[in-house]
């Protein structure tokens, strides 16, 4: 595939996907961070010794001091700490057996649906379920265990914020498993590991799937429900709603029409029909728009599909004012609801579209939807042909 010549730094990581989908593995080269397992002690109490000074009058009139130590039985009793029930973990585990779920473990990453490191407060699911608020980390919850992986920047913070129900997994210390290795080991053979497919890149999901398959486990995509959101409910912060704004041309340097033209040339050179973009900074750059959805980042939650002859921006239209609408209309860009992205991917597959997508950043919900739709629509002509053949053979055309 010919790489894009645009100056956007991350639009060159593209993989060509075709509706003539190959059954051979296509998601590779994902390097897992070696994350380390270390159980925290339940209690760090020092061995307590009580010192009592008592005065007594001896025959000589001198004073003496006596020291009494607690019996070891009492010390062990004091050191014992009851593990408090974590209501969030209990509620999460109860949902493992819900209809349509049926899992043995659930993985909660830090990212949002766009693989952002820094995210809106309403998407901080890992922080909510674990209590750990660092920007990087992955939580894994089984029916009887809970573990959190993070890197060396956050070891001290995680020690303070995780309660006794959680085991801290320290990245950077040698000789311990990654999250995928750990969950594969702790589950009985034939376990089902659930994820929200919107929160994992296609590469990451494929890597996880391959790792747990070695121990005969299955990766389950829960498209219709995020189990943490079900617990969070009414206390969950509302999605960001600040208005999107136009980034003036004098600051942007290149207008939207020129960027789209260069992008379309690259699409055609690659023999593709369209490109799907989910990285928020890339969308903001291509469209000369800015937002306030993520703290300290001028981006807005959205997806962008650019075809050879049209383009669609998937965004919450309540954040789009008249100026932005005119700006997009002049560039030939249609507005679509943010949560209708999968329907459009399915529609593209039904039309035989060949897509450019980056599996290292695009969530597996989109990639998997496209793959399944391609297989579904590619079987239809074959089914009709088989039906005709059976009819000419004198059969009814039904199995």
Explain how this protein is built.
The structure is a single chain. This protein is an alpha/beta fold and 399 residues long. It has two domains: 15-27 and 240-377, Creatine Amidinohydrolase, Chain A, domain 1; 87-235, Creatine Amidinohydrolase, Chain A, domain 1 (3-Layer(aba) Sandwich). It has 13 helices and 16 strands. The chain has helices at 72-79, 87-94, 125-130, 155-161, 179-186, 202-213, 227-232, 249-252, 256-269, 280-287, 322-330, 341-350, 364-392, and strands at residues 15-17, 50-52, 66-68, 105-108, 138-142, 146-150, 167-170, 192-195, 218-221, 245-246, 274-277, 289-290, 302-307, 311-315, 333-336, 355-357. The strands form four sheets. Strands 1-16-11-13-14-15 form a six-stranded mixed beta sheet. Strands 7-6-5-4-8-9 form a six-stranded mixed beta sheet, with helices on both faces. Strands 2-3 form a two-stranded antiparallel sheet. α5 runs parallel beside α6 (202-213) and α6 crosses α13. The chain is globular, with a radius of gyration of 28 Å. The two termini are 43 Å apart. The relative contact order is 0.15. Mean pLDDT is 82; it is low at 1-7, 19-73, 75-80 and 383-399.
């Amino acid at each position: 595939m010919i790489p894009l010549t645009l100056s956007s730094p991350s639009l060159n990581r593209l993989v060509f996907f075709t509706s003539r989908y190959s059954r051979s593995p296509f998601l590779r080269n994902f390097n897992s961070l070696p994350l380390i397992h270390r159980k925290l002690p339940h209690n760090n109490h020092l061995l307590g010794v009580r010192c009592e000074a008592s005065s007594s009058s001896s025959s000589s009139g001198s004073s003496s001091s006596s020291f009494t130590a607690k019996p070891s039985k009492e010390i062990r009793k004091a050191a014992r700490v009851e593990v408090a029930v974590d209501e969030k973990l209990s509620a999460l585990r109860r949902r493992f057996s819900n209809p349509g779920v049926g899992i043995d473990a659930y993985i909660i990453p830090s990212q949002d649906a766009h693989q952002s490191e820094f995210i809106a407060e309403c998407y901080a699911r890992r922080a909510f379920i674990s209590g750990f608020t660092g920007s990087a980390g992955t939580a894994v919850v089984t029916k009887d265990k809970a573990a959190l992986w993070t890197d060396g920047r956050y070891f001290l913070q995680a020690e303070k914020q995780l309660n006794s129900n959680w085991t801290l997994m320290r990245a950077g210390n040698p000789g311990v498993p990654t999250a995928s290795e750990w969950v594969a080991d702790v589950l009985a053979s034939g376990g089902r590991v659930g994820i929200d497919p919107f929160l994992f890149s296609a590469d990451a999901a494929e890597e996880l799937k391959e790792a747990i398959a070695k121990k005969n486990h299955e990766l389950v995509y829960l498209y219709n429900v995020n189990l943490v959101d079900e617990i969070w409910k009414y206390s969950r912060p509302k999605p960001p709603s600040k208005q999107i704004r136009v980034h003036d041309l004098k600051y942007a340097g290149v207008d939207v029409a020129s960027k789209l033209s260069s992008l379309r040339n690259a699409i055609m050179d690659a023999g593709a029909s369209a490109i799907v973009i989910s990285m928020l900074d890339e969308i903001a750059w291509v469209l000369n728009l800015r937002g306030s959805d993520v703290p300290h980042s001028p981006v807005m939650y959205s997806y962008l599909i650019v075809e050879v002859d049209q383009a669609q921006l998937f965004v919450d239209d309540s954040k789009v004012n008249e100026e932005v609408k005119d700006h997009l209309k002049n560039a030939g860009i249609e507005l679509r609801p943010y949560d209708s992205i999968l329907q459009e991917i399915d529609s593209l597959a039904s039309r035989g579209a060949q897509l450019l997508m980056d599996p290292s950043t695009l969530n597996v919900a989109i990639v998997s939807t496209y793959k399944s739709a391609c297989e579904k629509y590619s079987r239809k002509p074959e089914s009709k042909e088989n039906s005709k053949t059976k009819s000419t053979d004198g059969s009814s055309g039904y199995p």
